[in-house]
Design a protein that fits this description.
heterodimer; A: four-stranded antiparallel sheet; 33% helix; B: alpha/beta; Rossmann fold; 10 helices; 7 strands; binds S-adenosylmethionine; Multifunctional methyltransferase subunit TRM112-like protein (chain A); protein heterodimerization activity (chain A); Trm112 (chain A)
Chain lengths: 126, 274
């Protein structure tokens, strides 16, 4: 699981969960996998991502250094090549391989195996 | 040909052996690639912008690979962990989530610039467990899909419905969830080549439906269509001659975008003296 996906994932499918966001990351194993840098894409995603969640996730995994310390990114950050490169690494290159995601409202855990979060739930949980 | 949907739930049908067999089959690769290219065309994404897309029933990543080749980023959801493991082994560039579309899509509102699904949603018509109610599962699926798409974006499904009723039920549930759009039948006169696409819009209902393919189209610039768009994003097209504009307009018409009529002036330089 890359952090771009974590930034979008919720546990709202669970019965009685209101926002189910952000999911807490417990990482047992994470890896850095190089990916092509596309500044256009990162600039586009900046408008979509929840930066606070991204920062926290990166911090949990020990990769926050170099990220702007702010709640919301401003114009300047979006045009800064170094910032875009750092965000590229955080969004697309860091991957959680083993661990789990925890629903902030119910504590329900979703295991991550082989890099894939398991969001399947039992019929009773829906 | 027997239908895999008849053999039991998808997570059992797509077991380790089937997942490997499926992904190594050249004929399947070719078919899924073509279907995805057509779905991508119907998505009508903004020109030359890398987008974040959702691939529903992404399997081992054959459809997703075509999204990557066209310069897009994607997340995929599939119910078969074996299919997803094959995707990991083949080092797809997209990100993968194990999930059942009938339980709803687990993403926050407005996450994706578009969604595709290739040869997968007919599975929603199945009753694989006592507790399964297909209509309820379809409703859950389409309402959550509507929410996770950015406003104005589209979802395109290539599907193999078993009966006309199944197609109608799926379309009905999609409309109930707020989508507009409908079904496009490519090559309707050929039993072999005929393909169905459910083309859904989140925007206003006055969007023109894309044109279906009939097989009589003039073959246009295949080379351009199949080369990796990655490079193109970097060094944006400089030359915009008449043919380039005509090709682009034809592409946009097939995507169902409103395009001005071609005239003898199309692509001509405007004279400076005004
Ligand atoms: C024919 S394969 C297509 C895979 C991929 N889209 C491609 O083009 O190669 C159909 C896929 O749909 C998945 N599928 C079936 N029912 C599903 C469900 N309820 N939720 C998510 N995926 C499902 C299957 O596991 C399988 O991987």
């Amino acid at each position: 699981m890359k952090l771009i996906t974590h930034n979008m994932l919720t546990s709202k499918i669970l019965k009685n969960v209101v926002t189910g966001y952000p999911l807490k990351i417990h990482a047992v194993k994470a890896e850095l996998k190089k990916a092509d840098f596309q500044p256009d894409f990162i600039a586009r995603m900046i408008k979509k991502i929840d930066y606070k969640t991204l920062y926290q996730a990166a911090e949990t995994l020990g990769y926050a250094e170099g990220m702007p310390k702010t709640e919301i990114l401003n114009e300047e950050d979006m045009n800064n090549e170094e910032t875009l490169k750092k965000l590229h690494e955080v969004l697309l290159e860091i991957e959680v391989i083993e661990g789990d995601l925890e629903c902030p409202e119910t504590g329900r855990k979703f295991p991550i195996n082989n890099g894939i979060p398991n969001m399947l739930v039992n019929e009773e949980e829906l | 040909m027997s239908r895999p949907e008849h053999t039991g739930p998808p997570e059992l049908f797509y077991n380790e052996k089937e997942a490997k067999k499926y992904t190594a089959n050249n004929h399947i690769i070719e078919v899924q690639t073509k279907l995805t290219e057509r779905a991508l065309e119907l998505l009508a994404l903004p020109d030359d912008e890398p987008c974040f897309l959702l691939d529903i029933g992404c399997g081992s990543g054959l459809s997703g690979q075509t999204l990557s080749d066209n310069g897009h980023y994607w997340a995929g959801v599939d119910i078969s962990s074996h299919m997803l493991d094959v995707a990991v082994d083949s080092e797809v560039e997209g990100d993968l989530v194990l999930g059942d579309m009938g339980q709803g899509l687990p993403f926050r509102a407005g996450s994706f610039d578009g969604a595709i699904s290739i040869s997968a949603i007919q599975w929603l018509c199945n009753v694989d467990k006592k507790s399964h109610n297909p209509i309820k599962r379809m409703a859950k699926f389409f309402t959550t899909l509507y929410a996770v798409l950015a406003r104005g974006s589209r979802a395109v499904f290539q599907l193999y419905p078993e009966t006309p009723d199944q197609l109608e039920l799926l379309t009905q549930q999609a409309m109930k969830a707020g989508f507009t759009g409908g079904v496009i039948v490519d090559y309707p006169n050929s039993t072999k080549a005929k393909k169905l696409f459910l083309c859904l819009f989140t925007g206003p209902s006055n969007q023109p439906m894309p044109k279906a393919l009939t097989g009589n189209e003039v073959q246009q610039n295949n080379q351009v269509r199949f080369e990796s768009k990655r490079e193109k994003f970097r060094e944006k097209a400089i030359k915009k001659g008449r043919q380039w504009i005509l090709d682009k307009k034809e592409r946009q018409r097939r995507q169902g975008k409103e395009v001005r009529q071609d005239t003898k002036y199309t692509g001509r330089k405007r004279s400076k003296a005004f």
